[in-house]
Amino acid sequence: MLLAHLSPLAASLFSLLAIGSLLLAFVMLGSHWLKNYLLAFTAESWLIALLSAAVGYYGGYPELYLIAALTAFFRGLILPYLIWRIIIRLNVERELHVVLQPSSCMVLGALLVLFAFVVSDHLGDTLGLGGTIVVLALTVMLSMKLIGFLMLAVRHEAVSQVLGLLLLENGIFLGSQILVPGMPMLIELVLLFDLLVIVVSFGVLVRYLLVHVGSTSSRQLRRLVG
């Protein structure tokens, strides 16, 4: 497990980038506008790319420079562009079917972060890593995963669903950069290119919903049951 003992500068930089990524997840929770979701995801992806480069520099993992470049290119440019084109074609600007209001989602998200911190702090104490960057990395990773699941549960627009899934995956990717930066590059590349498969599949699903159902709400998928 990485970097339990870092210089103050490196620990502060990692903490800033990780917390910034988590705050952008709350931007997605606190809005109904699809454009805000996409902008927050794009900014979050760039922060994760910077984090990968920083871990590569301070941790002595030069292969992470390539991962950082690919993350910025695919997550920060290609995927947002593809999703933006889908939003434009669908002519859907905001979440229409609301399960929870943004304020309620923010409160629930804060509770999930608190839960993630309690779990991470306990794990850190168990591993003898309490008070290190490892606890923060675990907290942010679990928080982003839980917030991603929350978005999947309370957002019904197809675009919101895929961005919730990408947010969940961003959390896993962010945590892996800090906790296990020596993970084989092949696995890192598979995670990156897997996102393209997700977005392509999402585009096919949205077209099916729009042509056969006349809506982009995932609630219409209930018709496939039974």
UniProtKB/TrEMBL annotation:
Record InterPro entries: HyfE-like
Main localisation: membrane
An annotated GO cellular component: plasma membrane
UniProt keywords, alphabetically: Cell membrane, Membrane, Transmembrane, Transmembrane helix
Record's keyword annotation contains Transmembrane helix: yes
Bilayer topology: Multi-pass membrane protein
Keyword Cytoplasm tagged: no
Location of the protein in the cell: Cell membrane
Transmembrane segments: 6-30, 37-58, 64-84, 96-120, 126-150, 162-180, 186-210
Protein name according to UniProt: Hydrogenase
Organism, scientific name: Trinickia dinghuensis
